[in-house]
Amino acid sequence: MAELTPNERARRLAAGAGADRLPCVPIVGNTAARVIGCRVRELRYDAALLANAQVAAYREFGYDNIRIFTDLYTSAEAMGAKVYAPADETAYLALPAIQEPGQIDTLRPADPQRDGILPLQLEALRRALDAVGDEVPVTAALTGPFTVASFLVGAETLTRLVLRAPSAARRLCDVALETTLRLAAAIMDSGGTPSLTDAMSSSTVISPRTFEQFSLPGLRTLVEYIHGRGKKVTLHICGKTQPIWPLMVATGADCLSLDNDASLATAKTAVGDRVKLMGNVHPAAVMLQGTPLTVRAAVREVVAAAGDSPKGLIVASGCSLPTETPFENIRAMLDAVREIGFPVNRENLPETHALAGKIPNSKFQVNRNTQIPNSKPTLNYPGAPRHPFTEGELAHARKFAVREESTRTHTNPFPTCSRVSDSPSVKGWPRSGRGSSAFDAAAHETPNHPGAAGEGAV
Amino acid sequence: MSNANNNEEAQLHAALADDVVAMDETNSVGHANEIVARQFDAYAAIDQGLVEGMNRVGKLFEQEEYFIPELLLSSDAMYAALDVLKPHIRRADGDHKPKVVFGVVEGDTHDIGKNLVKIMADSSGYEVIDLGRDVPPQKFVDEAVAVGASCIAISTLMTTTMDAMAEVVTILQKLNLREKFKVIVGGGPISPAFAEKIGADGYAPSAPTAVKLLNKLLAPPASA
Fold this sequence. Notes:
The structure holds two protein chains of two kinds. Chain A is an alpha/beta fold. Chain A contains 17 helices and ten strands. Chain A has helices spanning 6-14, 31-36, 40-45, 47-61, 74-78, 118-132, 145-153, 155-164, 166-189, 208-228, 245-250, 264-271, 283-288, 292-306, 327-340, 352-356, 391-407; strands spanning 24-25, 66-68, 82-84, 92-95, 138-143, 193-197, 234-237, 255-258, 276-281, 313-317. In chain A, strand 6 (193-197), helix 10 and strand 7 form a beta-alpha-beta unit. In chain B, helix 1 packs antiparallel against helix 4.
């Protein structure tokens, strides 16, 4: 079969009509600067250049999804956080928007058409869509509310707040959610699809219980809103995620993008019948430091682990590629996927038992024999969930909470969560998207420091 | 000292450990004050109370019962009690804690990981010299020389700054100082292979394992 365009491939795979190969997305971020020979910082402050670079990288490698992305800080920056952008490296957070929790109520949701570099990201999205939107999906990175909240007040402060002052943490997550909802609306108004990325929600950082109380509600609201406008959405969380897979499914996301800390074979068994999986070649150890041979071997392991996942697999890097990832390694990833073809010929792939030792022995093991009941209850979050999940998954999710409870010697520091979507600021969110009567964005400085660009990997 | 006193002292040690595990700063300070008021040995309270508590927290962290927020709050409770007890340590048993110079490498300002390792090392009998974040490679070397450190510990969360880690080793080699210091590296994008490639002495994937690595590389601290 001749090489299909990414849109054709996606359509055919969704229809069960077969395709030339599995979808493949080496998550190219600022590596795009290397493709057109510009500096990383230039991408952050020049919409045309950012679009050109991303389109050129897509044309160079022929992967299945363009993502407009410079760094994780654009939403927080639009709410007052300071970002430092080195000349030729990914930007990073220089200073949170507020220095103490007492200032949370001074924060205002951002206006994506005006604040920080959000207007530039939207313009880059439109330009990329104009150039290649008919052949390849073009998404725009949307940093999750909990992660935005961590950049607004500082990661350490937020992690203390979630245990010590949950109501303050919740107000912070609410205002971050409102910004992300507005940005999601603006992205879809521009014709693109938001791509959710939520580094701080990782189980490397917070407990499944904290995730359930502070990340899940906002993500659910976002996913529901995106679905309401007829788009599907991918949720990426870096680092360890196995303890929260059922909760990630509960967000309603259509595809989970998992980092290299996760075992795709285990994910397939646990949640592969509910969501598409995406992952998870090591961005640094394999893609940056490896050779085309090691990349090929890693791709074959990924496909052997989850190529037969019921809802499908996108072969991808575990996280955004480091800027200096060699082009030959990115090409090798695509070549390896082409070589495997479709349907996946398992005979050529590594034996499953060869992988067994690489699947981490987790205590959050999912029972393969769990019967999924026919009735599909939902969580108690308001709004009609489009993707209700099963009792089995619920029980699995609750197991963590119960286990945590029983092993703690102290009083439970987590009061019952008041759902984020109860908050008046989110209720009645205008479906048309652009702004609301409650809109009252503070006058944020536009960045006057020299430009920059960023890594998705946290 | 009577048996009753011994028993009460042991109970206070256990209470301090529990306070740390329970992230309870108010109680840990209260129990530390009680140690001082009753003129029990402050060093023993730190070692058998606070350090024991942090050890348990480290285990809970490894077992994924505790996560970063819990670890930070436990360390808050530990440090608050430590502030009360420290002035009352009777200095006699020579101060031979191995010194470790810590920092996040230049170009990176993410320091949660480094702070966790610092906390765990601090509570495991190491003297911690914290250079903070965004630290130039040369400064690691200068500080290690200045304080007579046993080990340089470098952290990064970003792939863009990994090369600066290698530069620390290169500078040490250039100055013929490589044998004087152990160098350990850690952080999100770091792998054992990378540590080996740049000629570091070791890599650890988490805060508790970093302390185990220190224990392995350096002579065990006096209290261990």
